[in-house]
Automatic annotation (TrEMBL):
This is argininosuccinate synthase. It comes from Durio zibethinus. Its EC number is 6.3.4.5. Gene3D superfamilies: Argininosuccinate synthetase, chain A, domain 2, HUPs. InterPro entries: Arginosuc_syn_C, Arginosuc_syn_N, Arginosuc_synth, Arginosuc_synth_CS, Arginosuc_synth_type_1_subfam, AS_cat/multimer_dom_body, Rossmann-like_a/b/a_fold. The gene is LOC111303792. Homotetramer. Pathway: Amino-acid biosynthesis; L-arginine biosynthesis; L-arginine from L-ornithine and carbamoyl phosphate: step 2/3. GO terms for biological process: argininosuccinate metabolic process; L-arginine biosynthetic process; urea cycle. Residues 266-474 form the Arginosuccinate synthase C-terminal domain. Keywords: Amino-acid biosynthesis, Arginine biosynthesis, ATP-binding, Ligase, Nucleotide-binding. GO terms for molecular function: argininosuccinate synthase activity; ATP binding. Residues 95-257 form the Arginosuccinate synthase-like N-terminal domain. GO terms for cellular component: cytoplasm.
Amino acid sequence: MAQLKATSSMNLACYSPKRNTLFYPNTFSSSRKLSSFQKLSGGASSLHGHAIVSNNGSITLAPNNQGIQAVLSRDKEMEVSTATKGGGLRGKLNKVVLAYSGGLGTSVIVPWLRENYGCEVVCFTADVGQGIKELDGLEEKAKASGACQLVLKDLKEEFVRDYIFPCLRAGAIYERKYLLGTSMAQPVIAKAMVDVAREVGADAVSHGCTGKGNDQVRFELTFFALNPELNVVAPWREWDITGREDAIEYAKKHNVPVPVIKKSMYSRDRNLWHLSHEGDILEDPASEPKKDMYMTSVDPEDAPDQPEYVEIGIVSGIPVSVIGKNLSPASLLAELNKIGGRHGIGRIDMVENRLVGMKSRGVYETPGGTILFNAVRELESLTLDQETIQIKDSLALKYAELVYAGRWFDPLRESMDAFMKKITETTTGSVTLKLYKGSVSVTGRTSPHSLCREDISSFESGDIYNQADAAGLFGLPTDSFPTFHHIF
C-alpha cells in the first residue's frame, strides 16, 4: 500500500482475447483521428464494479467512486519518463490505454507504442470470466514490457447483466448456431477502455487485434460510438512483424521477457459465456475436432448415464434462479456452466461468415448459455402469442447481426432492445429441462401469464369452445382457391 497513492482517476481494465495472438500479415494503414461522422451512438458511459489495482505484487480493491493509481518505483518511473520524452518514429501521443492479455502479442505492443509514438502505456485487463490462470502474473509482465501502469477490472456481473442477458432475451443467434460469446464481450471491454482513457487523460487506445478478424471491428466501432475524438492505434495493421518468430525477435531486442508457455495448436477465446476454438486442423471443414481439444465440457459419450433435471426461474425474459436458488447474473451462469459441462451440453461446430469477407470455422463450448437459451424460448411458448413470436424471431436475426458486427451502441440495436424488453414483460415463470449426454429437452413449463388454457385446447368436450365456429375460418379464403386454379 505504501507504493499506491489515491488520485482522482478511476482505473479500469480490459481483456484481449487469445485469438488476437495469431499473427497475420498487416493489411491496412492505421493510427488515425476518428472523425465525428463515424460516431454511431451513445453518450458518456458509467463505471461499474470495483477496480483492482496491482503494483509490486499487491492487489487493492477500489470502491466504485474512488480511483487508485499504481505508481512504479522511482527507477522505473524515471526510465518510462525518459523513454517517452519527445516524439516517436511515427508521431507523438501522450498516453495510450492498451487492451492487454500478457501474451506475446500484447507484450511486444508496449515497447512498440513507446518507440513509435513516444507515449506512456497503461495496460488494461478485464476479467470477463476467462479464468484466474490468464490473470496471474500480469503486473510483472506489464512492468517488464515497459508499461507505466496495470489495472485489473472485474466486469463479469456487468458483462452478464448488461450484454449477455439482453441478447438472451432477444433470442439472438448468428447464422443459426453462434450464441455470440466473443461478440458480446468486446463491447463491454471497449466501453471500459473509453472510460479509463477519459479518467487517466489518455489521448489514444490500442488493441492487439489482427487485420483478418472480427475483433478489430467490434473494438473500434465502440470507440467510434463513445468517443470519436480518441486516436486508435492498431499495431497489427501498421508494423512489420508478420509472425511469432518476428515478435520474439522484437521482444528480445527490447528486453521484453518472452512468455515461456507451451504454444497451443488452437486460437482460443474464453469468457464466462463460452470458449471458442479456431485454427490448426479446424481450418479444414472436413476434419473432425480432436477429443482433447474441448476444455469446459465432457464428451457426451462420457457424460453420466443418468439424466439431470434443472429448473430455471425467469422474470420478464431474464433468468434469476437455478433450482429455486436466486443468484446474481454471473453466479447463475457460472453454476449452469458447471452443470451443463458435466453433461456435454452446448458444443457447436460451425462455418461462419466473418465481417471481413471470409468464411471461418469455429468450435464453441457454451454449456450454460445453451441451457438458458432453451429455457427462455420454452417459456415464451406459453407467454407470447403467435404473431408476436413470429415478429420477435424475425427481429432476433437482425439483432444478432448487429451484435456480431460490433454495433452494440447503434441506435437501431438499442431501439430493438427496447422492443424486446417490452414484449417479454410477461415472460415470467419457470422451466424444467432434462440434460442427458449432450442434449437438452424440456419436461415442464409454468407461468402466471400463460396463454395456454387447458379448458379451451383439450380434446375432451367443453362449454367454452364451440367446434362449429371453426367453419368461419374457411369460407372466405377457400372461395379464391377454385378461381385461382381455374385461371391458371
